[in-house]
Amino acid sequence: MSASRMAATNSPSHLSPLLIAARSILNTHMIRILGTIFAGLLGLAFGSFLNVCLSRWPQGESIVQPRSHCRNCDHTLSWWENIPLISWLALRGRCRNCHTRISWRYPLVEASIAALWALQAWQSRTIWDWGSLDQDLYIFSSPNAIVCALGWAIFLWSLLALAFLDAEHLWLPDRLTLPGILLGFICTVLQTRLNYNMTSWLPPPPTLAHELAASALRCFYAILAAALLILLIRWLYKLIRHREGIGLGDAKLMALLAAWLGLPGALLAFFIGILLGAIVGVVLLIKPSATSDPHKEWSATKLPLGTFLCIGGIISALWGQPLIATYLHWAGF
Ligand SMILES: [Zn+2]
After folding, report:
1. What is the pTM of this model?
2. What percent of the chain has pLDDT over 90?
3. Is 306 exposed, middle or buried (0-12, 13-18, 19+ CB in 10 A)?
4. Separation of 292 CA from ligand 1 center, angstroms?
5. Distances from the Cα of 38 to the Cαs of 31, 41, 61, 83, 265, in angstroms?
6. Ligand 1 centroid – CA 84 distance (Å)
7. Where are the domains of the chain?
């Protein structure tokens, strides 16, 4: 085959439009699969980091120093005892030195972050949906898309952190909720710009500024309304039961959910959270032995509302839109 003929065969213009489309879809799919695997592996590493935070934050310890060690015998972990999931399985959930059980929370957190990040990467249309855009490396041309994707990864990480901290310590630290609200606000406005399917070098249409301002205002009102909802319930509870039932941390958590998911998404998370809390409450009522203290009145058992809200938030973040659409269709809207 002559050189000129070979060049003609390899040239995309020589291929039929159908073949070009098929090749583009295949490439997008392959990149999407590789990206999902990469996000999952990165999730394992950051799940391992979350375990360090979950063990050290409540004790007021540094998350940097000292190196990872057994909390029973202080044995410093070597690199191969510190591999997410694999080390826990290889050591059969026990410390190599003192044989104390290592909590199942460690592999659970690592697997959960990996699964959440992989799911989010798989679903992220902004990153993979290059077909509708007339260029190959959209992600590199749009820093907004990268900021939003990283922001969502941090949001899901924070939700899992808050879920475990509230379950284990009834604690929803401001260091996670408050910066999360600000980041959610920024990413929501950036997402509005992304939805314009625009590239940074094209001049923005005149309506863009208007749209961005509206999006910022909408997000601000959603944060306010979600926090007020919890404050109202807290006030009513205090009025009726004459004691604190819901912490201020829950109000900040709802504001965080609203900043990222919008008001409908946050309300869906709230509904799922309350439903889960009610189910657990009923199980505790039927099985009094399930509580730590059999003499304790079941209604005095403190349920971690934040944990349920976080689980609701994760479900709403990943499947909120189809769930809300199904509900609206079912309700006849
Ligand atoms: Zn040990």
Report:
1. 0.85
2. 62
3. buried
4. 26
5. 10, 5, 31, 16, 28
6. 17
7. 13-118, 124-333
